[in-house]
Amino acid sequence: MKEQSTDDKEKPVKISLAGIVYGDIIYWTTIAATFLVIAGSMLMFLSGENFIDPAYLIGAVMDERSKDDIWCGAVGNVPNGHWYLSQLSTGNGLTMAGIALGVFSVIPAIVGASFYLLKDRQWDFASLAVVAALVTIIAMGGSLNFLTKTADGPTCTTHKQAADQGARASS
User: Which of 15, 21, 32, 90 has CA atoms 20 to 30 A from the CA of 3?
Assistant: First the structure.
């Protein structure tokens, strides 16, 4: 076998433009989302204005309560859809907006990549990218909620109401 000398240069790998577009969009929106999550988390712990009490939320998660129990105990009902949009001035809302932005970033990235895949006449990959973008848009829009909904929503009591009921029962 012939040994490779250090003078031999490897050919650089050519990355498709679709991959670069996808990567850049994901990269920068994920960085923006990270800053929103950090700012929201700081606001949540440093401010008194929260949609959900952080101490209750952490305790409920550590107690391994279900998401319905946590929501019911925190705000009295399980909110639908993008609840955080009306709560952007709270730490919880800003944190959730950052998470949603991170998830959303895949949509413009896939659409941008599919444009360049179509331009390069890679029909199979382009069509799969468009289908993936549509499924993500439908899922984020809440149209797939029927997969997880129960016939009757949970009966809710907030943790404050439960504490009041416990205090009344003990007196």
Answer: 15
Q: What is the mean pLDDT of residues 74-97?
A: 82
Rounded to an integer, what is the distance from CA 143 to the centroid of its chain?
Answer: 16
Q: Is residue 154 part of a domain?
A: no
Q: Encoding tokens for residue 28? A: 């920068």
| Token pair for 62 | 């550590």
Residues 6+ apart with CB under 8 A from 133: 106, 107, 110, 111, 114
Packing angle between helix 67-75 and helix 159-170, nearest 10 degrees?
Answer: 70
Our count of domains for the chain comes to 1
Cα 171 to Cα 165: distance, rounded to the nearest angstrom: 10
Residue range(s) defining the domain that contains residue 114: 17-147
Angle at which helix 67-75 crosses helix 54-62, to 10 degrees, equals 160
Q: Residue 34 has what pLDDT? A: 96
